[in-house]
Write a structure and sequence with these properties.
One of its GO terms (biological process) is DNA-templated transcription initiation. The protein is an all-alpha fold and 190 residues long. The protein has 7 helices and no strands. It is 73% helix and 0% strand.
Length: 190
Amino acid sequence: MLNTRNYSAVDPRAFKGHSDFWFMWSEHEERIVRCCYKWLYNDVDKVEDAVAQSCEKAYKAYTNHNDNIENAFAWLCRIAHNTCMDVHRVNTKQQELVNQVTDLPQEFYFADSYSRTLESDLIQTNIYNRLIQQIAHLPADLRQVVEYKFMHDLAYPEIAKKMQLSQENVRKRVQLARQKLSKIREEYHA
């Protein structure tokens, strides 16, 4: 702590009860941990989380209130018990959701949790740019069909009507254009 005549870099009130709390916590921590093991059925990960949360909650409560604690173990134990019950509630909700999803998988839609990387974005951009170039180099009849089908999202009957072709001819032109353009994708995935 930096002290000058009229200036203090750290307010001493910020540490009010700091050492008192840690003495009290260290005195009862082992018993609190044993209680948490009992309440959380010996699940080590959950116990560690619950003890850490209990310690944090107790510290905040201890430093924020001037109340005199008559039975420190009972007070800490109540905080730990409430924290453990919160952990149970969260786990129960999660398990209910998992059970619901596994019982009725057709009722739920899960978005891909895949996050794109810079490399995949760069590859996609390169593929897109190459695709635009290749579309520009397609013969006019194939390029027109590709524009109608993929850029304007028209159905085959609409394209056939606009181009005055049969639907079969339009499908064949789309197929030929796809074959020529699919080589670009193969270059990047090879």
